[in-house]
Amino acid sequence: MAAQAPPRTGREILERARAAAPRLRERSEDIERARRLPTDVVEILRATGVFRMGFGRRWGGPELTSVEQTEVIEALSYGDASAGWCAMIGSDTGLYAAFLDEPVAKEMFPSLDMITAGLLFPTGHAERVPGGYRLTGRWQFGSGITHSDWVISGAFIYRDGRPEPGPDGDPHDSRLMMVPREQVEIVDTWYTTGLAGSGSCDYTITDVFVPEEHTLVFGAVRNGTGALAQPEVHMRNMPGVPLGIARAALDHTREIIASRARPTGAAAADDYRMQVVIAGCEADFVATRNGVYGSMRRQHDVLAAGGTFDDLTPDERAALPLSRLHAFRTARSIVSRLYDLLQTGSIYRPSPLDRWLRDTNTMCQHIVAQDRILQSAGAHLLGGRPGFPLCLGIV
Fold this sequence. Notes:
This protein is an alpha+beta fold and 395 residues long. It folds into 3 domains: 10-108, Butyryl-Coa Dehydrogenase, subunit A, domain 1, CATH 1.10.540; 116-216, Butyryl-CoA Dehydrogenase, subunit A, domain 2 (Beta Barrel); 239-392, Up-down Bundle (Butyryl-CoA Dehydrogenase, subunit A, domain 3). The protein is 44% helix and 14% strand. It contains 12 helices and 9 strands. It has helices at 10-26, 28-34, 39-48, 66-79, 81-90, 93-96, 102-108, 240-259, 272-304, 314-342, 352-363, 371-382; strands at 116-117, 122-129, 132-142, 150-159, 162-163, 174-180, 185-187, 201-211, 215-216. Strands 1, 2, 3, 4, 5, 6, 7, 8 and 9 form a 9-stranded mixed sheet that branches. Helix 4 (66-79) packs across helix 8 (240-259) and helix 8 packs antiparallel against helix 9 (272-304). The protein is globular and about 80 Å long. It starts with 9 loop residues before the first helix and ends in a 13-residue tail after the last helix. This is Acyl-CoA dehydrogenase. It holds the Pfam family Acyl-CoA_dh_2. Keywords: Oxidoreductase. Residues 14-95 form the Acyl-CoA dehydrogenase/oxidase N-terminal domain. Belongs to the HpaH/HsaA monooxygenase family.
């Protein structure tokens, strides 16, 4: 069968993602057992166009808005959480391109479907040398690294073995370093409660030369303008994963209830408890989803019109990270309540609720779902100092 032509529009990518979701659901057991995405599953994702959706039109890419990207991730996560998580991480390649010089980025990414993985927090050691850096370190949580093309890693900068101050007065400067996957060693540590199929292993890089032009900081856009050329752009589509899982869990549970009868012979759908729990979960889902997309659409309207984050009110700016955090925590709450609702029917490993419970608990340990986000948003609202300013687009 002839290969599909690459998708060119957001609508086509979303349609392909929705069509792929049932196939991903069928492979969920295999994905979890492998503790990484099998090769054919990676190709299912690649064929949807998810990895190219952040590339701009002048690159020949579809240039999906953050809202459209989140909808695609939501559709894929409806099929399988680990696949959706890896799609979300791997789709950042086109977003990183804006922080590199255009000729360099086009050389690094000859295909729009290339995949980037890695940990952004600076845990590595980058020694300045002529033309670049010698990078050494060990990083955690390399989601999708087992099928990636490039690995991006945060590192502190040293000169002659001493910490190098940053140009903004930071006592110890740091940068993001991009290294070809073949120069990275994977350490198989990914034995986890949830998101088991994401292959989020530790990895090491040992004395690898990184050219200066293969490094970036989120405070310096090197090519491109507009709503996607912004410092926190890589965080925006993350709530698509928990939203997709919550919707899948609700649909799954409603189908079971609709087909189940109580011991008395009455329909389970007429049970008061079933009705109240389902309605409560639906209410939380609708409100949370609207919060995510509403705050993101407002952000897009301002940035697409040539505005900046400073044109958002403090409430609007804080709503962006808060709605993300709320999506993660609400999805976990919804899945947990549905798990309890179906009782012993939830506990056996073939039950997707068992997997979704573990997946949502694991993903809620990510920084975007942690109290550091609440502190940062609260500080911004009160005129204080955010502990994680990047989540607010502050660099």
